[in-house]
Write a structure and sequence with these properties.
CATH superfamily of one domain: Tetratricopeptide repeat domain
Strand content: under 5%
Radius of gyration: 34 Å
Order of helices and strands: HHHHHHHHEEHEHHHHHHHHHHH
Helix content: over 70%
CATH topology of one domain: Serine Threonine Protein Phosphatase 5, Tetratricopeptide repeat
Oligomer: single chain
Shape: elongated
Distance between the termini: 107 Å
Largest sheet: 3 strands, antiparallel
Number of helices: 20
């Protein structure tokens, strides 16, 4: 009786093995014929027999499953994720045995997949479909985990498309692996155009230099992206109304990069968003110690001072910004606005006067102060027009000031320009 049972069990195992081989062969045949629906059906049938497969059969099963679900790039988003997972399981299975039978084929397949994902990511990015773009950048990374820039791009685009939970997962992954984004750019100037270009490698750059098409070769170390990532993580948490986590993200990044310029700016932006203007000013001042002529920081301090109604402090920083960059139009515009903003106080005082001789004299003095205010704003607005001749807001304001000041020639000239800008020359 015992022998009969053993024989029956042996027959059962043989039957299962035969069935699993048939399903796998069916899947293989369907894939060769581009019948991916049939291949998925065969794979699903074989899945129930995985427990009886040896490592070699399992490796082949996962390889075929990856192909079937990827379906030459036509698989759904969920199917593509299954395909990538299947290839990873293939690697795990062959790592156990040390025999790389299907791994090289999977590598070639993943290279094709990676290029396809990158094409899709770029196409989606061009049409500003950030949701589709980030998913494909992430998949490109999953097929080639050495290309961490793809995961960074995916995290940025997930943030832009407001897929915050996915973005946080990717940022956490980047932070955990110690990603900084710092790289070495290999640059050289194209002689014909005079433009500096970035090459994929120093070898390719050097070939162009030797060929005589480029010169002035140099290597440039890119800035760390840690600050940018910490800022985005913090802003996502603020968006999710989780302020404590936002500040913790900044603090965690500061532990390894306490003097990172971009990280200081990131925290400053977060503090500003939280309404902590004193802390914002403190951080911007610290950043200015690292980059004393950073025109944007000087300008921002001017904005904060203006928001606090500290006109003198605001003008000081706007003037410093202009000293750092005489073409910085925003500083000229804000200074003009700052000066003209004082007009209302003068008008209120004028309207509060009576009809006595003393009041009449005071009125004249205030009117003169008002004219002086207009005159002080003119040079700043003229600078705006010098650097941005199509700035309609500056043009209208300056035109009106010329009118009030009785500067008829300049008023007429500027009115003609404003009419042309507003009516397209009609």
């Amino acid at each position: 009786m015992r022998k009969i049972l053993v024989m029956a069990l042996a027959l059962l195992i043989s039957g299962v093995t035969f069935a699993q081989k048939k399903e796998i062969k069916d899947a293989e045949k369907a894939i060769k014929g581009n019948n991916f629906a049939g291949a998925k059906s065969a794979i699903n049938a074989a899945e129930g027999m995985m427990s009886s497969m040896d490592s070699k059969s399992l490796a082949k099963f996962y390889y075929l499953k990856g192909q079937a679900f990827y379906a030459n790039g036509t698989g759904s988003d969920a199917d593509v994720d299954i395909a990538l997972e299947s290839f990873n399981k293939l690697y795990q299975e062959e790592n156990k045995t040390g025999k790389k039978v299907y791994s090289p084929q999977a590598d070639a397949m993943k290279l094709t997949m990676s290029n396809s994902f990158l094409d899709k990511a770029q196409t989606a990015l061009n049409r500003k479909d950030y949701g589709a773009s980030y998913k494909n950048f992430e998949r490109a990374y999953r097929t080639s985990t050495v290309d961490t820039l793809y995961l960074y791009n995916a995290a940025l685009l997930a943030t832009s498309s407001q897929n915050y939970d996915d973005a946080l997962e990717m940022y956490d992954e980047l932070m955990a692996m110690g990603y900084t984004g710092i790289s070495m750019e290999h640059r050289a100037t194209e002689i014909e155009s005079g433009e500096e270009q970035v090459f994929p490698s120093s070898a390719m750059r050097d070939i162009s230099v030797k060929a005589g098409t480029h010169n002035k070769s140099r290597n440039v170390k890119t800035e760390s992206k840690v600050g940018e990532m910490a800022k985005n993580i913090a802003l996502i948490y603020i968006e999710k109304d989780e302020t404590d986590k936002a500040l913790k993200a900044i603090d965690d990044a500061k532990k390894s990069n306490p003097d990172d310029f971009n990280l200081i700016l990131s925290e400053a932006n977060v503090r500003y968003k939280l309404g902590e203007l004193d802390k914002y000013k403190e951080l911007i001042t610290k950043a200015l110690e690292l980059e004393p002529n950073n025109v944007d920081l000087l300008f921002n301090l001017g904005v904060v001072a203006a928001d606090n109604d500290d006109t003198e402090e605001a003008k000081k920083y706007y003037d410093l910004a202009i000293s750092a960059d005489e073409t910085y139009v925003r500083a000229y515009m804000n200074t003009a606005a700052l000066l003209l903003g004082q007009e209302q106080g003068i008008i209120d005082e004028m309207n509060g006067l009576g009809t006595s001789a003393a009041d009449d004299k005071k009125y004249e003095e205030l009117q003169e102060s008002r004219m002086d205010l207009y005159k002080s704003a003119v040079p700043y607005l003229e600078k705006v027009m010098e650097f941005e001749s199509d700035n309609i807001n500056a043009a209208r304001t300056l035109m009106n000031i010329y009118s009030v000041l009785g500067d008829t020639p300049n008023f007429k000239a500027l009115k003609a320009k404003v009419d042309e800008m507003e009516g397209g020359g009609e």
